[in-house]
Specification:
Layout: H1 4-15, E1 32-38, E2 44-50, E3 59-63, H2 74-78, E4 85-89, H3 106-113, E5 119-120, E6 123-130, H4 133-143, E7 148-154, H5 167-171, H6 183-192, H7 195-202, E8 213-216, H8 227-235, E9 241-245, H9 254-257, H10 259-273, E10 285-286
Parallel strand pairs: 3-4, 3-6, 6-7, 7-8, 8-9, 9-10
Antiparallel strand pairs: 1-2, 2-4, 5-6
Helix pairs in contact: 3-4
């Protein structure tokens, strides 16, 4: 039987990598609308959106990492990017999305987003993915290229060679141990363990990517190595990456501690989609 000290070590090690309290789903912020849509894989995807008439605007969707929920991007909904309808989703396994089960398959995660992907005025949806949300956004762009117009990848985990599962993560999924760990942390652990294989399966398709991409990744990121940026620059087609922002003095949580650069990256992708400026060759390097 595991000693209490070992169990506590497992909980502390896993929880130290997480941002959100796992015990309760945060209440919806006042002023945001909660909606849902049913995907073809049976997932009822819950999401938040700003209020007001936005149905004619191009769409922008924020995808959280693990763990997390739609409230992670609430500031980007209250102060929405001009000219866009902004949504933030509860990914399968988190928040109010039902049923409460994980989808460890990147294609199935992308399939859950498919009902929200739209093209308005000839402009496809921009997907903004943080951490694990990054490869999910890329998968959606590959699976639904006619509907996804641009990508913004924030501290994204794309390189399978950089995915290493620690021993305590396997332990945390063994026997009765998962029941000693708060729900969202348990879900997060079970998402991360198979990620390397999912990224290996994604890799052969990366050259198919059609849309412009912006990347924001801090050199000091201790959770997702900055070398993921080099991987994307190698594997994505030439000219698809329109900007790379490597903010000094920041960390993995750039959506919250580097909002200005995130918004700048979104603006850059939107401009590239509208043809306001040509895609650079091979990239535009920006170092604030």
């Amino acid at each position: 039987m595991l000693s209490i000290s070992v169990v506590l070590f497992v909980v502390v090690e896993i929880s130290s990598c997480q941002l959100y309290d796992a015990y309760v789903v945060p209440a919806d912020p006042e002023g945001l609308a909660r909606r849902e849509v049913v995907a073809s894989n049976g997932i009822t995807l819950s999401y938040l959106s700003g209020t007001g008439p936005q149905s004619e605007l191009p769409r922008l969707i924020y995808i959280h990492g693990t763990p997390g929920d739609a409230t992670a991007f609430q500031r980007y909904l209250f102060d929405a990017m001009p000219g866009f309808e902004s949504l933030s989703v509860d990914r399968p396994g988190f928040g109010f999305t039902q049923p409460k089960k994980l989808l460890n398959s990147l294609p199935e995660q992308a399939r859950s987003l498919e009902p929200l992907l739209v093209k308005r005025g000839g402009i496809g949806t921009i997907l903004v993915g943080h951490s694990l949300g990054g490869p999910i956004a890329v998968q959606a762009a590959l699976d639904y290229p006619e509907w996804v117009g641009g990508l913004v990848i924030l501290a994204g985990s794309l390189d399978p060679a950089l995915e290493h599962v620690a021993w305590y993560q396997y332990l945390a999924d063994f026997a009765m141990v998962p029941y000693m760990i708060p729900g969202a942390w348990r879900m997060a652990n079970r998402e991360v363990i198979p990620l390397r294989a999912e990224l290996e399966a994604l890799r052969p398709r990366l050259k198919e990517l059609r849309c412009p991409v912006a990347i924001v990744h801090a050199p000091n990121d201790m959770l997702v190595p900055i070398e993921n940026v080099d991987y994307m620059l190698r594997e994505f087609p030439a000219g698809r990456v329109v900007s790379v922002i490597r903010p000094e003095g920041k960390n993995h949580f750039v959506p919250w501690n580097d909002e200005a650069d995130v918004r700048r990256a979104i603006e850059g992708v939107a401009s590239a989609m509208k043809g306001a400026r040509p895609a650079p060759s091979p990239i535009t390097e920006e170092k604030p």
